[in-house]
Design brief:
20 strands, six-stranded mixed β-barrel
């Protein structure tokens, strides 16, 4: 048999169902938000790096001059190298509709059992996870000749099915057909997967059938020891680069990746950090709603409290009774919020997995994340009790006389009288307005709680929109470094006048700006450690770069060993200032470069610097040849950019066969041998 006070608690819970539902909802919203954020953080943190490491990602990724498939054996036999494989990308056009084409990268990968790749052994570097077709769902089986395995996002974007034929157009206008043998997921795809680049995988024999010589230009390498040590990876990259240069091959690009750290993890961490802040605000809002609700409830029950005390109830008994009511509200809210929070965490994690292309290993649909559940229980019980503690204590301390004669908790009769006197003197204030003013200020605690609740609600609303505006602004600022309509990146330098002439022959192209780029090894204060710096070199008076300078100045005509570096240098070298000298090694040549400015980039950790095109082109021996072109069109709309992009290959690849001095005829297959993407819209 329940005691009377517990029957009253149940009666209070059940008698006003709408109020009970509102209190439970206010608690559940905060607990749900915390559960989603904590659960997603745990799921993504666990599965993002684990699924990335499981496919044996490349620690070192090099773009080089052409090499034969068996050259990877030489690199693999170097001390400290665990594995090495070759790749080559053929960028062609794929038909989307009767008059619609898009670019697709066909990556030639080692085919186990193929004569060309007998030296390659499992596990493959940057493994693919089979989804449909040969070998699915266990191990990937290579497609047969004249077939392709499409990356899963590409399969969806093209709207094709396994067994369909893809119609592709080569650089010389030849149209061929590839059969779709299956689909696979590429967890190491990086930014290309986010941007929606089309990609497929073919064998070396298919590469030759497409008219490309069997010479590779990309090396993916794993190290034997310390794959998560950035300094060690830099040392190994320098060793391998030196070996390639001694063989007469130039390295055009180097990328380093730690095995247990997904390259895009910083994006998710930034997004989750924003969600955590919003979750805290929601939590405070929930607490304010609970406190306001409990204050209103106790104001209604003030006479009941007086009666209970009149018949002998102690303060502790009254407080315990109402705290128990709050605890029941919390428990009921947990029953709703915990499963919904688990579902929300899974949905958010799955969305992140689809965007970043990693594998979410947690089984659907409602995963149980112990940490998230524990946090939800703590929040669902302690926050309501903490928020309701003050009004409960204040209400339980009310004396019998005050409880039976008061108009409510927190009322201030003196303040009410002063307001009444002022409104009575203000003849111009209407009677309804006078009553409103008195009711507003009669209970100051209620007024404060209402203002806090409205303030927090407004803060959350503003925070969400400010986050969106800030993100859009950051994207706009980043785009100031990429103001060309079409970016053309070739796999090797070609004669500038030839490429410029072909580009200007396309209707709608207004100008072509020639850039160059390279990578340098940076050594500071004679340290053994070296960092890789990516150097971009536009013309000094380029109209396609509008930098945001944090210190110093931008490049001017006549600058030679002058660099403008991004803010990532401050993370590695906090004392770096304008006027400092950096010791760089470029193409085996060492020189001192002066920092003339620091610019704000996209917040990435990579070290990026700008130099003048005229000087760097001379240093690289590429005065009359270039591989980087920035194209400006007359119409800057996306539709026109797409049209130029689709027209581009047919014209720009007309430079087929143009060779630099000392190159072997047919080594690269002419200008048709392009780095992906051939052209990207900005």
């Amino acid at each position: 048999m329940l005691r009377p006070r517990w029957r009253k608690v149940l009666h209070d819970l059940w008698s006003n169902k709408i109020r009970t539902l509102l209190v439970i909802a206010s608690i559940a919203v905060g607990v749900f938000a915390i559960g989603v954020i904590v659960g997603a953080f745990v799921l993504i943190s666990q599965d993002l790096s684990a699924s990335y490491a499981a496919v044996n990602p490349a620690n070192i990724d090099l773009i080089t001059d052409p090499f034969a498939p068996d050259f990877a054996d030489i690199i693999r036999n170097l001390e400290g190298v665990a594995g090495a494989e070759g790749r080559r990308t053929a960028t062609v056009r794929v038909r989307l509709g009767p008059d619609e084409w898009d670019l697709i990268d066909l990556v030639a990968i080692p085919d186990i059992g193929d004569n060309h790749t007998a030296a390659f052994v499992h596990p493959q570097i940057n493994q693919l996870l089979p989804l449909q077709g040969p070998g699915a769902p266990h191990t990937l089986t290579s497609p047969r000749d004249r077939e392709t395995i499409l990356e899963r996002k590409t399969l969806d974007l093209l709207g094709v099915a396994v067994g369909d034929l893809l119609e592709i157009e080569l650089a010389d206008g030849t149209v061929k057909q590839l059969r779709v043998a299956g689909s696979a997921q590429e967890p190491t795809v990086g930014y290309g997967g986010i941007l929606g680049d089309l990609k497929g995988f073919i064998t070396y024999d298919t590469l030759e059938w497409l008219g490309y010589p069997l010479s590779l230009n990309r090396l993916v390498i794993t190290v034997a020891d310390r794959p998560d040590d950035k300094a060690h990876l830099e040392q190994m990259a320098a060793l391998i680069t030196d070996r390639l240069e001694k063989s007469g091959r130039e390295v055009y690009r180097t990328e380093l990746s730690q095995t247990n750290h997904h390259p895009l993890a910083s994006i998710i961490q930034a997004l989750l950090s924003v969600l955590v802040i919003l979750g805290v605000l929601v939590l405070f809002l929930s607490g304010a709603l609970i406190s306001s609700t409990m204050s209103a409830l106790l104001n209604q029950h003030v006479r009941q409290i007086g009666v209970m005390k009149l018949v002998g109830a102690r303060q502790s008994q009254v407080a315990t009774m109402y705290l128990a009511l709050i605890a029941i509200f919390g428990l009921l809210a947990l029953l709703v919020a915990i499963p919904l929070g688990g579902w929300g965490a899974f949905a958010l994690s799955q969305m992140a997995a689809d965007i970043l292309n990693f594998v979410l290993r947690t089984p659907p649909p409602i995963p149980v994340v112990p940490l998230a559940v524990a946090v939800q229980i703590v929040v669902g019980l302690l926050v309501p009790l903490g928020a309701g503690m003050l009004p409960v204590i204040r209400g339980s301390r009310t004396t019998v006389q005050k409880a039976l004669t008061s108009t409510g908790l927190g009322s201030d009769q003196e303040s009410t009288n002063r307001i009444k006197q002022w409104t009575d003197r203000a003849r111009w204030v209407s009677r309804p307005m006078q009553i409103s003013l008195r009711n507003t200020f009669r209970r100051k605690s209620r007024l404060i709680l209402t203002l806090v609740t409205l303030t927090l609600g407004g803060a959350i609303f503003i925070a969400v929109f400010n986050t969106r505006v800030a993100l859009d602004l950051k994207v706009s600022e980043s785009a100031r470094y990429f103001q060309a309509d079409v970016n053309l990146d070739l796999s090797r330098p070609y004669r500038i006048e030839q490429v410029r002439q072909e580009a200007m022959s396309i209707d709608g192209v207004e100008s072509v700006e020639v850039w160059t780029s390279t990578q340098a090894e940076l050594t500071v204060d004679g340290r053994e450690r070296t960092d890789t710096v990516s150097i971009l070199a536009p013309p000094a008076e380029s109209a396609l770069v509008d930098p945001t300078l944090l210190e110093g100045r931008w490049l001017i005509p006549g600058d030679e060993t002058a660099l403008v570096v991004n803010e990532a240098f401050w993370s590695e070298y906090p004392d770096l200032a304008v006027g400092d000298v950096l010791h760089l090694e470029i193409m085996g040549k060492e020189d001192d470069w002066t920092v003339v400015g620091v610019f704000q980039y996209t917040g990435v950790d990579n070290l990026i610097a700008y130099a003048t095109y005229d000087y760097l082109a001379r240093e690289l021996g590429q005065v009359h040849h270039a591989s980087v072109y920035r194209i400006v069109t007359s119409d800057h709309t996306l539709e026109h950019q797409v049209d130029i992009e689709h027209l581009g290959p047919g014209h720009l690849l007309a430079a087929e066969g143009q060779q630099l001095p000392g190159e072997r005829p047919g080594a690269l297959g002419g200008a048709g041998d392009l780095l992906h993407p051939l052209a990207s819209r900005v």
